[in-house]
Amino acid sequence: MSSTYTPSTPALPPPKIHPSAIIDPEAELSPGVEIGPHCTLRGAVKLGPGVTLIANVYLQGPLEVGEGTTIYPNASIGFPPQDYKFKPGMASAGVRIGSQCILREGVTIHAASKAPGAGPPTILGDRCFMMVQSHMGHDARVGNDAILCNGAMMGGHSELGDRVTLSGNVAVHQFVRVGRLSMLSGLTAVSRDVPPFCLVGGRNTIHGLNAVGLRRNGVSRDEITLLRRAFREAFRARLPRAEQLEILTQLGRQSPCVQEMADFCAASKRGMVAPPSRSGVGEEASDTDA
Fold this sequence. Notes:
By secondary structure, this protein is of the alpha/beta class. It is 15% helix and 24% strand. Mean pLDDT is 94; it is low at 281-290.
């Protein structure tokens, strides 16, 4: 009688804590956690297996950090939102960070503005990479495998889909949504929603499809061809929203990716980024964007 051999997973060692670290009694540390010099954990901070805090990391609960995430020096996570309505002592749903993330030096992620049960925490998905001095505002949400390059900023309540890339010093306005597999080039500012699979640059200006990202993520040639057609017909010119949605809906019957575009645009409350104007300058923000 044959049997299948299943190798055992080595047990993780107990948490390793530098003597200079300050750990709140409410904190929960899983096996394999490493906490370096001068780190401070305040309140209900829960660190998953194998989490590493290199040095001088400041964490404020309620906060959950997923397995295998590494946080570099001078990161500050879970502190109160930059919101005048949030007063000292008010309860917050906090922050939830996924597994296998990398948070580099100076990253800041602010706690949610609502109490537990009244709203979700600020959420960073799995395998995300936040580079030096990047920022997530209160109540922001980021999907899986996203990249925020140096100095990228997300305003409160903004959202990034899976595999979005924000290049250096990109600014995403509060409540703005950025669709899956989109890429925003360096110094871009958006105060309107960005549809999935697109490239955006300048201010609220859409330039094309993220074709390289689509190919790297295994999207078929046929899907990319239909996405190119959808972009050409729906986004190349400035169309009334109803006409734009009609084009996307019709083409979406042939393509799940185009249908994803259509659903995203239909749900937009802020309006969509637009192609360059005849002057070559992107659409300016309205007075309500400030």
